[in-house]
Amino acid sequence: MTTLLEVEDLRVEFLTDAGPARPAVNGVDLRLGAGETLALLGESGSGKSVTSRALMGLVDFPGVVRGSIRFDGTELVDAPDRTLRRVRGTGIGMVFQDSLDSLNPVYTVGAQLTEALQVRMGMTRADARSRSVELLEAVGIVDAEQRVDAYPHQFSGGMRQRVCIAMAVALRPRLLIADEPTTALDVTVQAGILRLLRGLTEDTGMAMVFVTHDLAVAKQVAERVMVMFDGRAVEEGSIGNVFAAPSHPYTRRLLSAHPGRARHWRDLTKGEARDDDGEETHRAG
Amino acid sequence: MWTFLRRRLLTSGISLVGVVVVVFFLARITGSPASLYLPESATQEQIDQFNRLNGLDDPVLVQFWNFLVGAVRLDFGDSIWQRRPALEVALSAMPPTLSLAGIALALSIVIALVAGSVAALFRFRGPDRVISVTTLTISSIPDFWFALVGILVLAVNLRVLPTSGYATPEAWILPTATLMLAPVGVLTQVVRGAMIDALGAGFVQNARARGYGRVRLVARHALRNAALPIVSVAGDRAAGMVNGSIIVGSVFAFPGIGTVILGAVLNRDFSVIQASVFVVGVGVILVNIVVDAVYALIDPRVRLGAGRSS
Amino acid sequence: MSSVPAASELEVVPAADPRPTGGRLTVHRLLRSPSALLSASWLAFLVVVAVALPPFVETAANRQDLSLRLLPPFSLDEGFAFVLGADSLGRPELLQLVMGTRSSLLVAVTAVAAAAVVGMALGLVSGYFGGWVDEILMRIADVMHTIPSLLLALAVLYVLQPSVGNLVIVLAVTRVPVYLRTARAEALALRERVFVESSRAVGARDWRIIRTDLAPLVVPTIRTVAMLELASVLLAAAGLSFLGIGLQRPDVDWGMMVADGRAYLASAWWVTVLPGVAIVLTALAANLLSNWLRAAEDPAQAARFVRRPRGGRRAA
Question: Its family (chain C) (predicted)?
Answer without folding.
Answer: Belongs to the binding-protein-dependent transport system permease family.
